[in-house]
TrEMBL record:
<dbReference type="InterPro" id="IPR013098">
    <property type="entry name" value="Ig_I-set"/>
</dbReference>
<feature type="domain" description="Ig-like">
    <location>
        <begin position="2"/>
        <end position="86"/>
    </location>
</feature>
<keyword id="KW-0963">Cytoplasm</keyword>
<keyword id="KW-1015">Disulfide bond</keyword>
<dbReference type="GO" id="GO:0005737">
    <property type="term" value="C:cytoplasm"/>
</dbReference>
<dbReference type="Pfam" id="PF07679">
    <property type="entry name" value="I-set"/>
</dbReference>
<keyword id="KW-0597">Phosphoprotein</keyword>
<dbReference type="InterPro" id="IPR036179">
    <property type="entry name" value="Ig-like_dom_sf"/>
</dbReference>
<dbReference type="InterPro" id="IPR052385">
    <property type="entry name" value="Obscurin/Obscurin-like_Reg"/>
</dbReference>
<dbReference type="InterPro" id="IPR013783">
    <property type="entry name" value="Ig-like_fold"/>
</dbReference>
<protein>
    <submittedName>
        <fullName>OBSCN protein</fullName>
    </submittedName>
</protein>
<dbReference type="InterPro" id="IPR007110">
    <property type="entry name" value="Ig-like_dom"/>
</dbReference>
C-alpha cells in the first residue's frame, strides 16, 4: 500500500461566532485510510456539528458548524504518520 502524504496542508482561519468554517487538506492518494481530524487533541466524529467528508477522493474536508468560543484552538488533520495543523 503506498505511503499517503499531505500534498496541501491546512490553512489558519478566522471566523465570527455562529458562522461555519471549513478546513481542507489534500493527500497524495485516493481512499486514504487511517485519517483523523482533531480539535485541541480531541478526535472529531461526523455529526450535526462536524461534517467530515472527502471530495474528489483526495481532498479531506472538515466543516465546523456554528462555531463558538469553545471551538477556538488547533485543528489537526492526520493521515498515517503525517500531520497538518491550523
Amino acid at each position: 500500500e503506498p505511503d499517503v502524504t499531505i500534498v496541501s496542508g491546512l490553512k489558519d482561519m478566522a471566523v465570527f461566532e455562529g458562522d461555519d468554517v471549513t478546513f481542507r487538506c489534500q493527500v497524495s492518494h485516493e481512499n486514504a485510510r487511517d485519517v483523523e481530524w482533531k480539535l485541541q487533541d480531541v478526535a472529531l466524529q461526523n455529526n450535526e456539528m462536524n461534517e467530515i467528508s472527502v471530495e474528489k477522493g483526495k481532498i479531506h474536508t472538515l466543516t465546523l458548524r456554528k462555531v463558538t468560543e469553545q471551538d477556538i484552538g488547533t485543528i489537526a488533520f492526520r493521515v498515517g504518520p503525517h500531520t497538518s495543523t491550523a
